[in-house]
Amino acid sequence: MAKYNVIFVLGGPGAGKGTQCENIVREYGYVHLSAGDLLREERQRPGSQFGEEIETHIKNGTIVPVQITCSLLKRAMENSGKDRFLIDGFPRNQDNLDGWNKEMSDVATVIRVLFFNCPEEVCVDRCLSRGKTSGRADDNEESLKKRIKTYNESTMAIIEHYRNLNLVSEIKAEHGPETVFEDVKKVLTDLQ
Ligand code: UP5
Ligand code: MG
User: Which class for 14: exposed (0-12), middle (13-18), buried (19 or more C-beta within 10 A)?
Assistant: First the structure.
């Protein structure tokens, strides 16, 4: 069987990963898998043995162990029946990267990493204004400080890892969504 093609989509909290993934799905037909959304779904699933653990990590802006996240991603990939994926918000730290490589390198190829680079204050503003209606447990000032700390201390190193492999396309993410998508399209069109 041919391998899955995967684009990892990374960037700080509120950088616009989810928003731009929706745009990409509309124009380029990838399947969008948000690791955060899959974890939030698993947390809500009645009888989940991981619900509490996931809840604690999300509130604290820390990172769920890769065994949990990677198995949710793998199952979603298999169930989709498709072979091209945008994996949004993963891998976030070395544990995630090691787990992915161990579990998925035989079945999936990472063809690109989209890095939405967004100033911290813009990220915070976006998440706080979304927090007025999102109901997300982590769209508050206290959780946001922790999410940003985790991003700077753990996720940036993963982006650097992929930059050294020449796989990163960096996109300025502070402009409006349409302007950002113009830059995204340049990257995606080159991949076709
Ligand atoms: N918005 C978007 N783009 C805009 C633009 N260009 N201009 C103006 N506004 C813009 O956007 C955020 C908000 O900004 C929205 O209101 C949007 O309309 C607006 P969104 O597209 O949702 O940004 P995104 O980068 O997806 O932000 P999100 O909050 O989802 O990012 P996080 O990385 O913080 O959240 P995620 O859901 O990926 O993870 C949450 C938690 O889950 C993590 O902190 C962690 O605890 C856990 N997690 C893991 O443990 N492991 C994983 O692998 C993944 C998550
Ligand atoms: Mg998101």
Answer: buried
Q: Which pTM was predicted?
A: 0.98
Amino acid at 164: N
pLDDT at residue number 75: 98
Which CATH number do you get for residue 114?
Answer: 3.40.50.300
| Ligand 2 centre distance from Cα of residue 38 (Å) | 11
Ion ligand 2 neighbours, Cβ < 5 Å: 17-18
Residue 1 is predicted with a pLDDT of 72
Residues 6+ apart with CB under 8 A from 123: 12, 13, 14, 15, 144, 148
Band of residue 51 on the pLDDT scale cut at 50, 70, 90: very high
Alpha-carbon distance of 125 to 14, in angstroms, equals: 8
145-183: pLDDT as tens digits? 999 999 999 999 999 999 999 999 999 999 999 999 999
Mutation pick for ligand 1 pocket among 17, 23, 33, 153 (CB with most ligand atoms within 8 Å)? 17
The reply to whether 16 falls in a domain is yes
